[in-house]
Amino acid sequence: AQSVTQPDIHITVSEGASLELRCNYSYGATPYLFWYVQSPGQGLQLLLKYFSGDTLVQGIKGFEAEFKRSQSSFNLRKPSVHWSDAAEYFCASSSGNTPLVFGKGTRLSVIA
Amino acid sequence: NAGVTQTPKFQVLKTGQSMTLQCAQDMNHEYMSWYRQDPGMGLRLIHYSVGAGITDQGEVPNGYNVSRSTTEDFPLRLLSAAPSQTSVYFCASRLDRGRDRYTFGSGTRLTVV
Q1: I need a surface site. Which of A93, B13, B80, B109 has the fewest CB within 10 A?
Q2: A69-111 confidence digits (pLDDT tens)
Q3: CA dihedral A46, A48, A49, A52 (to 10 degrees)
Q4: Each residue's pLDDT expressed in tens, for chain B with a length of 113 residues
Q5: Cα A42 from chain centre
Q6: With contacts defined as CB-CB under 8 Å, which chain B residues touch A105?
């Protein structure tokens, strides 16, 4: 069965520091991969998605993610974190005909 | 173009009561799904539908029923509410099973007392 693992439950970074959130997927073929962000009490906002092609994907708010088939990973990165990036981040995957499966999320705290 | 509309936004139920969470989309999307979100658990799939008249179970279907009589609507029914069903529920839709982004509703926060 398809699954998504986010190894880090909670990460704290300083404002201006770089960020990497980890995501590993389990699926035989190349999945479709997504990163979503959720601020407290809000809905889900799509940051970026990967379907095929260039393995480095650019998203909104200065985020990017890199698909690495050999590591079954799709890590999210940002070179310089802003206080407004504090939120919960979800990695998700699907194939062409399977439902979207989410990881358990990583909560990001940003300190001054 | 309203996207995915969920009603109500908030609901408090007593144990044993039944209710229906409504989800409607106006984008002619074939694919619709229901998730519940609990702290530390991410979003877990309850039921999904690949088109009118077709539904299937997800990871946590017990205690919930769905139907898909039209393309637009995908209601989620709680038959006999339990405190374990206290959660935030999200409905999502997608154009088809191919390469398309999901559109999420704004969620329904349900408390069962």
Answers
A1: B80
A2: 999 999 999 999 999 999 999 999 988 678 899 999 999 999 9
A3: 170
A4: 679 999 999 999 999 999 999 999 999 999 999 999 998 899 999 999 999 999 999 999 999 999 999 999 999 999 999 999 999 999 999 886 556 778 999 999 999 99
A5: 17
A6: 40, 42
| Residue recorded with tokens 């979003």 | B43
| A34: Cβ contacts below 8 Å, ≥ 6 apart | A46, A48, A49, A50, A91, A92, A93, A94, A100, B101, B102
* Among chain A residues, CA nearest to B108: A43
